[in-house]
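User: Sequence in, structure out. Go.
Assistant: Echoing your sequence, followed by the structure tokens.
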Amino acid sequence: MAKMLYRKDTGEILGVHIFGLHAADLIHEASNAIATGQTVQDIKFNVHAHPTLSEVLDELFKGAHLDAHAPAASNNAAAKEKQPVAA
């Protein structure tokens, strides 16, 4: 099971929780995405082999719903006040 917190307006990934067997095998992709500043838009088109455990993250990122006209991530203070969304 996996859960992602992200900003709906910018796609910034705020956090990812992974529970269950092999969670330690999966968390590295999410932590690298956060550490390098990737957004949901950046990572949702990564290729994940089938059948593998990484498909859990593939479905998680592809299931994220962003605002229709989400701008690129910025350091705009007003935009950072928006609430995160859980996927």
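User: And one key feature?
Assistant: Residues 2-86 form a domain with the Enolase-like; domain 1 fold (CATH 3.30.390.30).
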